[in-house]
Amino acid sequence: MNQLPLLYFYTNMPTPYQLDFFDALKEHFNLHVVYFTAREQDRQWNLSTNANGYSVTVLKNNLLAKLIQQKVPSVHYSNSIKQVALESKAEMVIVNGTYWSPNVVLAMKYSKQAGAKVYFWGEPVFPVFNTIKKRAKTFLLGPVKKYTNGLLAIGRRAAEGYMAYDYQQPIINVPYNINHHLFDDSHIDQIKLRALKTLYAPNNEIVLLSSGSLIERKGMDTLIKAVQLLPANIPVKLLIIGEGAEKQALLQLIGPDPRIVLLGFREKDEVPYYFRIADMFVFASRYDGWALVVNEAMSAGNAIICSKSVGAAYDLLRDGENALLCDADDVEGFSKKIQLLLKDDILRTTIRENALTESGFISSEAMALKIVMLYGENR
């Protein structure tokens, strides 16, 4: 029996989408995941670092890193990162996280020194136009250019951003991904599903869903205002999953409107049920490097209305085919497109079916196979 190649994967902490990716990767690699911490202070996920089918190391931040994390939670530095990387004997290494964070830089540097093929899995870099800021960003991106054999770009915008900073190594598009099968009937308790539908749409209202942190960037205020513009006789219910600093302001904006409900935070295993009771997924984010919720909406077969300022929309969504696209902050535009899908059953069904059909193309299984192909090309 052939031994699987050793893949080390460095990342900040356990996240739902990465756990799906790891489960897919372990089928093809002897996978070892190195977490920089068990949990970051601004995250609500309750996820274990224990794994089934692959090994895990959880590093400890030193005192300086813990002080910095009070302002920037995603910055990590462990005194043991050098030893872990040099002693790994990995054939292939993937590093994810804030590109200038010490653990990220050192994981890339020492993995390359140890002879591994090193890849950085990165989101889009924020564009800057000030000359001084651009020089600073170019400097901070230096280790990614120097120590990697290629970039795993989280979407085309990430690829374009790194090329703008003169990244010369191969770039492979490997967006955030999920196990799309978790939204299938085989993984859903039908009794629970019907109970949720009855609870939130007792009069067969059309259920609109959105999901994301309740912060200004996610544009939940735009979505709430768009629903409030709908005629009162249209039977809809908007459900919003998420917590955040803007919660009280959004509650004030909602006021007594019974059509809009803030559900709060939901754990990973609960999320598919809310997507499955939804008829439409509406996302008005002002900016998202990717937005995994789009993958979830496609996997659930939702009719999607999405902001054009979302990385996943740029890669995956085609206006009028598998989604309707709208400018961020266009309250009237979102309201009109919601009404269009409410009125046009054929268009709504077409969008839902197209999105569902394409969901497997960007699944964790599909992305793991990209890594397998990349490994084969570099043997």
Automatic annotation (TrEMBL):
Domain of life of the native organism: Bacteria
Ranges where the Glycosyl transferase family domain occurs: 201-355
EC nos: 2.4.-.-
Pfam family, one: Glycos_transf_1
Top-level class of the enzyme under EC nomenclature: transferase
Molecular function GO labels: glycosyltransferase activity
InterPro entries: Glyco_trans_1 (IPR001296)
UniProtKB keywords: Glycosyltransferase, Transferase
Protein name as catalogued: Glycosyltransferase family 4 protein
